[in-house]
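Bump. Still looking for Tellurite resistance protein TerB structure tokens.
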Amino acid sequence: MINRVEKLSLLSEMIAFAKYDKEINDVEYGFLLGVAKQLGISRSDFDYLIEHPVTYVHLKSHSERIVQFHRLVLLMNIDQGNQDNSVGIIKLYNFGLRMGLSHESITKVLYLMESFPNKIVPPDVLIDIFKTQYN
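Sorry for the wait, here they are.
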């Protein structure tokens, strides 16, 4: 299980990712707030993170890094108004590398993402991709 510092770091990273193209819109805010609640972070702490990011903490658990990558994939694709996702894809790829995920797995997820409805890769498919590369 991840600790509070790691949870705040995850949220801060997701907020930074959501801000890559502009301010956080209502749909992104709602998604991020849902993740905060899932992680046990209060709304006031979440709102504070929006203006005051915390330092990145590298997750030790490979499975937690995969879950975080999946959250970022979901976050990137909830804003359907953004048709040109090339900057988002590059940013997502770099976030995945920084987390220590294999570039082959990241590339495969980004490639397969195009074939799924709303570009949302199902969790079991994503896990299989990373499991294959991890072994």
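The two ends are 23 Å apart (CA to CA).

Edit: fixed formatting.
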